[in-house]
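Q&A log
Question type: sequence-to-structure
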Amino acid sequence: MFNIFSLIFKYIFIIIIYMFIFSIIRLIYLDIKGINLTPTGDFAYLKLLNRKDTLPFKIDEYYSIKNVLSLGRSGGNDIIIKDPYISKKHFKIVEDEKEFFIEDLGSANGTFINDERIEDVVKLNNGDRIKISNIEFIFVNR
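Response status: OK
Response body:
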């Protein structure tokens, strides 16, 4: 009788070990799958400077800018960030003749370029830091 119980517990223990190893491998796979590499191509993009795991909402590392890019809380924006300090329509970036311009859309807490609040349309230069709420992006123009 004791041999049967020890045999059953041995197999249960082996199954638990294999399930643990499988869950570790699955977590590693999901972590590697979630890594966004630097975007390739000849276009401008916004790169998040904050650590993603410190923010209480979902956000990507990179956002490519094709012609127009809008950011805000509402669903009609290209970048949707569910932060209470971000307006429904916070700012937009527009490309015009290979130059990029950012415009604050009347947000309550403002949009900051290199730590200066913008009031009008401002031309973006490569390496400019865009800050809204506690989120900071860097503008990269290739």
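Response note: The longest strand covers residues 91-96.
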